[in-house]
Amino acid sequence: MKKLLFILIAFLTFANGDAQILDPAKWTTNIEKKSETNYILTFNVVIENDWHLYSQFTPDGGPLPLEIIFKNQKGNFTLVGKAKESKTRTAFNDIFEVNETFFEKKGQIQQEITITNPKLTEIKVDFNYQVCKEVCINIEKNFTFAIPAASKTAETAPIATDLTSLDSAKVDTAVVNSDVNKEQTVTPEKVPVLDSKSDKQRGLWSIFFIAFLSGFAALLTPCVFPMIPMTVSFFTKQSKTKAKGIRNAIIYGIAIIFIYVVLGFLVTWIFGADALNALSTNVWFNIIFFVLLVTFAASFLGAFEIMLPNSWANKVDNQADRGGIIGILFMALALAIVSFSCTGPIVGTLLVEAASKGGIAPIVGMFGFSLALALPFMLFAMFPGWLNSLPKSGGWLNTVKVVLGFLELALAFKFLSNADLVLQLHFLEREVFLAIWIAIFGTLAFYLFGKITLPHDSPMSHISVGRLSFGLMVLAFTIYLIPGIWGAPLKLISGFPPPMTYSESPYGVGNSKGGSSTSAQILPEGAHLGPHDLIAFEDYEKGLAYAKSVNKPILLDFTGYACVNCRKMEDYVWSDPAILKILQDEVVLISLYVDDKRELPKSEQYVSKETGKEIVSVGNKWSDFQITRYKANAQPYYIVLDTEENMLSDKPESYNSDINAYKGWLREGIDRFEKAK
């Protein structure tokens, strides 16, 4: 039996061995009986290196999230909550300007169900999802789970999906896993999905450095800075020898680090390593932290002070008088409590950013913050003479606090923008966002120039050179933002404002078509203005007919609305003047979107002869067209054709950021067309 199965698998492998049909995600499934009516459906996936499979929690506006469809649910079973996922990674996508969530290498999805129809014999589930590397692939997979018989064996053992398990376990019913064009069987590996180590390390290092700089910023606030000489002098006087004073100061610094690291640990432990990671794209999470950051900003600007109860500080001070290591630990705790009105907003903002990264990022963030906070206390205790070099406390400390308040206020609107983008409310479009930032940073510039004063500012007769220099930098940044309202890309702050497509006027205020010469043209029937105002067709037959009428070659572009690298090619390669001129003048562009969800008329729906799948949407039609005719299923995918639909280039092209190479590939096909005329 095993030999027969091996021969069958080998035959299927070679029979479907076209290298252009990519399938980087291999699935296996099982079903486990939990009770008389409840079952757990498990989907395991092994993903090839460097590929990403997007989670069901990836927000709208980016790559396509995983969609799980229970086809025969009605009247047969109910879902117990939402499908649970194993560990994923969240990273910012600078093309779509959203946080995308995805699996790498391995993943697992589990869904518990309750059977309501005792006669039910099988459960049918469809997965629609996207995987990307240098190209993106939209895939539909169909799974059928056979309900195991109500026996002791069925209650204790999951139903396996790989062929060798079926043979050895002597199981009568199996789960069929059907692919786009073939069945796949892979033995599941019970290992949680792992993050890319290099990306994870880079993320943690960035959190550490941001936290470290935040710790130094906290030092320069009126709650913390004056405490450096006071606290160091206290330790020096309390110690009978210089060596003991240094030792106590080092212990004090370590105690400060310990307190803040414990805070980071508690955030991770209470909320879970990935709970806030998943929440980072949640609408309510972003709205709550918008309100929180606005509150922090108001506190820093002088509206009120966020303070812990005085009784807490008094109790901690009493414990600090005990002396020894315990007393030093309570002294560090007293510092944290007394300085909370200044450090609290910074720590809160830092924890929000760190927690959105998931894992141990909150612990790493608190370590970086507390290290910067503790270092001066240790160093000045070791070298007391350095205390004389410290600048005197004064109004400049409140200036630092106010500047931090303005920065918190600007950051708050990024959280509000995230919520608006997810809901697609268009309340905070790009122009409005930029106008708010211009107002915030413009007001900050006036404040630094001394034209505006706030409640806790000290009177001043002049401004320092340092304050003037910083004010000029803020003013220059404000002026830099202004052209963004008229369509300037503002690459310096890419990722903070909403994308240019999410605006009242995508080409800039007062410029409906960006001044392109094509804007005044009468478009051919069935055409529209695509990227860079290129005339493009989204229907193959109409584009082909137009190409014949003007006797030009065709650039066939298999693409997707949620294809990251398709957008990169359009933004960075097609925008090159030499490439753009070719696309404008020498070819007819036909862009076929394989993820177009519009339903085909009933008369045009069919079952694919190649894959056996039902073709019900426009995207299904173009995806099947690509697979059937070109034996490929990845996007972007480019082909130069003549008007008789023959390929003009030696091979198709996919993602290629080399502008000269892409230009050479285009010229090869176009020149062959010209010679054949």
TrEMBL record:
The Gene Ontology CC terms held by the record are:
membrane
Organism expressing this protein natively? Flavobacterium caseinilyticum
Q: Identify the keywords attached in UniProt to this record, alphabetized.
A: Cytochrome c-type biogenesis, Membrane, Signal, Transmembrane, Transmembrane helix
Give the signal sequence positions: 1-19
Any one GO BP annotation for this protein: cytochrome complex assembly
Q: Where in the cell is it found?
A: Membrane
Annotated SUPFAM superfamilies: Thioredoxin-like
Keyword hit for Flavoprotein: no
What this protein is called in its record is: DUF255 domain-containing protein
Transmembrane parts of this sequence? 204-228, 249-271, 283-304, 325-347, 359-383, 395-412, 432-449, 470-488
- Annotated ranges, domain Cytochrome C biogenesis protein transmembrane: 205-417
Domain of life, per lineage = Bacteria
Write one Pfam family the protein is assigned to: DsbD_TM
Which GO terms fall under molecular function for this chain's record?
protein-disulfide reductase activity
Q: What is its main location?
A: membrane
